[in-house]
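WARN  no MSA supplied for this record, continuing single-sequence
INFO  ligand: D-glutamic acid
INFO  echoing inputs
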Amino acid sequence: MANILVFDSGVGGLSVYQEIQTLLPQHNYIYLFDNKAYPYGELEPQRLIERVSRFMRSMVEKHAIDLVVIACNTASTIVLPRLRQELKIPVVGVVPAIKPAAAISQKAIGLIATPATVVRSYTHNLIKEFAPNSKVELLGSTRLVTMAEEKLRGTAVNLVELQQILTPLLNQIDTAVLGCTHFPLLREEMQLVLGKGVTLIDSGKAIAERVKRLLDANMVDSSSRLSPYAIYSSATPWEGVALNIGLAKFGFSPVRTFPLPDA
Ligand code: DGL
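INFO  complex generated
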């Protein structure tokens, strides 16, 4: 049994957590989200790197973490080299599923992500390497991220607003990459707006497989140091009651604060 930390700026990482937990239900999970600095898609890169590094070092030490999942595309596109240098445990990141999208797309790919992810050189290198012959339309939106946060708190998604945001992609693409972990939480609504002819792809299952392979290879066994099945936050979350109801659906106990010296 391993202690696995899943991290995101908000509730998006729950979409990744769900895939990992489904594949590997025998492990202990802690879900940490940095709602204090949310949204990461609008955070200055160096500040993001410093924050994530501090969080991870502190959590790994305090909770005997065996493996970290950075369940955030925006963070993963810039923090992974630093974390892999600093932490002595496996670090799994999530980046937009451009490669599988290019393998199936016959027309054009829409990459839907945060405003930061769509401008990162990491993302542009991914496209150059794995989709050199595909037409890739980029759409960065923080409002979509917030809509996913609202949905988890019980607010219905406004389809008219969603359609407005996705307008640049309508009838232009056959494959949409959900390049932000918040977006699988809006999958049904996005499918409705984009239409049945568009295949939506995210990285959740691939991440779960990667975690499995790493745990198999590292033969982690933390059965003697059970960690709590808990969830932490760095600041009082908005609509806390509604958030806790949403989190309970993923099996989590009410949110607790993780006191981290501010970065
Ligand atoms: N869920 C995150 C991602 O995958 C970031 C959302 C945000 O905080 O802007 O990119």
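Residues 8-10, 12, 38-41, 72-74, 114, 117, 142, 145, 180-182 surround D-glutamic acid (CB under 6 Å).
INFO  checksum written, moving to next record
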